[in-house]
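Just curious. Invent one:
>
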Amino acid sequence: MQAKENVISRPKRKNKKRILKLVSAFIVVLIVSAVFLVPVIVSSEKGRTIILTKINNSLDGKIDFASLSMSWWKGIKVTDVSFNDSSGQTSVEVKQITTKPHYGSILFGRVSLGETIIDEPRVEINLKAQQPKKARDSRQKPPANKKSGPIALPIRKVDLVINNGNLKVADPQAGTVEIAQINSKLNLRLPSKRTDFDMTMVVAKQGSASKISAEGQITTKKGWTLKGTSGDLTVKVDDLDLGSLGPLLAWAGVELDAQGQVSANIKSEMKDGRFENLSADIKAKNLDLMSPRLKDDRLKTSLLIVEIELSSDKELININNLQVQADWLKAQATGVVPTTFKSLADFVKADSKYDLQSTFSCDLAALLSQMPHTLGLKEGMKVTSGKLSGTVSTVTKNGKRKVTGKASLEELKGTVDGKTIALQQPIKVEAEITAEKDKVIFDKVGFTASFGKIDCSGTSESLQYTADIDLSALQAQLGQFFDMGKYRFAGQVIEKGTISAKKQQITAVGSSTIKNLRITSKKDGASISEPQTDIEFAVGYDRKSRVVNIDSIKAITSFGQVDIKDGVVPIGKKAEKIVEMTVTAKVDLQKATPFAVMFASFPKKMQLAGAAESEVSIRFEKQGYRVATDATHIKNLKVNYPGQKPFEANDVSIVFDTEVNPLQKTVNVKKLQLISPQIKIHKGEFSQVSKDGKTKLEGRVDCEYDWAAVSTITAPYLPQGLKLEGQRKDSISFTCEYPTGQKDKLLENLNTKAKVGFAKAQYMGLNFGPTEVDIQIENGLLKIAPFSTTVNNGQLNFAAEADFKKKPILLKTTQPVEIKNVQVNEVMSRKLLVYVNPIFLGAVDVTGVANFSAERLAIPLAGASKNELEVIGTIDADKLKLKPIGLLGLILSSTGQQDSTVNMKIHPTRFVLQNGLLQYEDMQMDIGDNPVNFKGAIGLDNSVNMTVTLPYTMSGRTVRVGEKADDRISLSLTGTIDKPELDMGKLFEDQLKKQLEKQLLKGLEKLFE
């Protein structure tokens, strides 16, 4: 039975093996079929459609090709490739692209291409009209559904060939340039392997053509950086028309206008990132360069020749030939120079085989005539002569090798406003350097001029220097030719110190004294003086860590002292430490005030007193700087301003913590506190962030303050004579987003809400009672909500708005303004009513009640002209009493009245203030029982042009209120508000004329009787 079962099971095992073999064979067939089918699918129309769809979804434009074929042995071929970007500016056409990739490397995430040939690529770029620079700088973002940015591929190897390429760039301003016959070969290899390249092209524009070729071999150690790179490079340019590059420069965003013809032949060899051999022969004709950096100047030369033959040997550079020649410059050099300061000692040794001979000469008259703005020449200055020249040479004398150098500025002359000027004596620089063992000896290093001198002597380990400069003479000599700024300086600067160098450390220790310093403004003649300023310093530089260590810097002046200790300032991105320092200062505010007025636009009439002490820490954090203090105090602060109650505080403490990023132009005030008896800022925050061409501001302040104290401090910026009183506790916040660099757009985009109020206010005789005003600014639109308050026991109703987006900016009322039953006083009469009628000039003991209403009121803000002020309204007054002084007294005295006090009434008078003139047709004043009428205009420039009609007739009759008379006497009123002139001669002339008419009529009556 068991034998029978074994016989049956044997065929079953054979069937299982057969099935396994069949399945394995089937899988192999499937894999082989798939491998062979991939090229078929890729090369099919469906494969073409899938590939194009994938590519176009990742591009800001559209790409297409006629056919794509793939073979495991022949590689990939794509024909009739085209691309057009979505803006219509860039168009690309390629006849054929073939490549033989190494498919195995792709499986490991690395791209290795065999021979890749691009046949007849055609690229056309049509630049639209140039946008403003700021708009061009902010790159357009692709649509949200498009992927942006280049795709970086890990390419290990490629043999690239470009046949008969063409690039055409058309610009509306610069024209069209074509780079044709582009043929190149590039064998790109991994670092440590040699990469070869060879390229030729022709640059053509408007009939001119220039051939450019470049070839070389490069081997890099780590990536594509100059460091560690070895190889050679040859570049040849034949008669290149620089003007033809205009469209290319515009395309690249380079603001340069270049004209002229250039030919060049450059050959170089590099080893480990250093040039071992460099040969260059450059010739240019009719060179003409202009750039915004040249401040509208043009640098020109009819001829430029540059010849260079250099080779390097360890730490020395062999200059076989170096010559530069232009219309205004000649320079040449031969010999050997050290590449580092360390090798300078070997360079000047007595047995050194190296030497240097060089000269240069520059015609300053020719150069300055082309570059007056760039080099800071005074406006209207014409330099007629001037020579800047120098020599450097090595000689061996008495067994010592010496390096000497000389440079001088001589014969500098010119004319300005027809006056001839000249430099009093040449400016010279001299240097003599020798060596002794391992030391470099500076026998003489000096600078001499009519305005001062600098002398140096010592060794490379310890160099002593002294300097003595007369600031007045410096400005008198060089200031004849060059713009030295908006100030005139006088005084003497004396400095001495020692510079030491040991191993990796360079230190400088010294002191400087500025005596009898006087700074005078050229604009208004204002001047400040400082008898003596003493500065002491001890700083060092670590060449290895690239860090400047500030042991101490101390500056002592008559108004205070500033100290910096234990500071660290890194130099360069690779420095091992961060910026860190502490600055302490003590300042006498009263003595420092003149300097604040001169340099910080501090109000001239404001007086300060008090002692300020501060300790501020500065530290580099998160790509920016952190500036903070919790120890800033002002003791016995006093602030005085004319017409204001003095502000006094025994102690003012300030705490702030601020982050500043200069590169990103961001400011973040994380903490701000100010504590004084009358003004307190409990919490202050502020941030400024610039990104994508926009600057965003945000801020918030929680504060308590006494208006009397604030009014004194802010008096220079408030309307003259405004006084505020009352205790306030407010929270103010704001936001704003405006185009970066356009601060004039800040108000146009401001958003804020605030409640402003006071207990009392005085302004030009108007005494306001408790007032609360809601102010809102939304996207630059200021709205002052309607409010009412008391003024001189009367009532004021007011509401207004201002649109900061409109120019000029005007605060306009949104409803009629009403001021009812305001009690008139002497101050109000002299400050306000006198501009309505000059009869109030010099008025004394004025009382009464006035009313004012305005259907339209527009007040100019933010620097708008005062002539933009517009008022259309009505004014009247009753129960006025005043002494007849000034114009009123003159009018009354002309009629024989001599009352000590007069009663007056002003009838409702409609007036219009526009274009700088206040005008009305008839303002009737009842002086007692007699009417006096005014007509004409009063200017905002204080001019007066009016007619006054007196209450008297030519017959001598006095007119009473309510009576009519056609022959009332009218007088001309001219002059100014401060000095009105009433034409009294007209009164006597009219009276004489009337009497003559009377006598004539009587004579005629008798004649015809």
Q: What stands out?
A: The chain has 13 helices and 53 strands. Residues 1-43 form one domain.
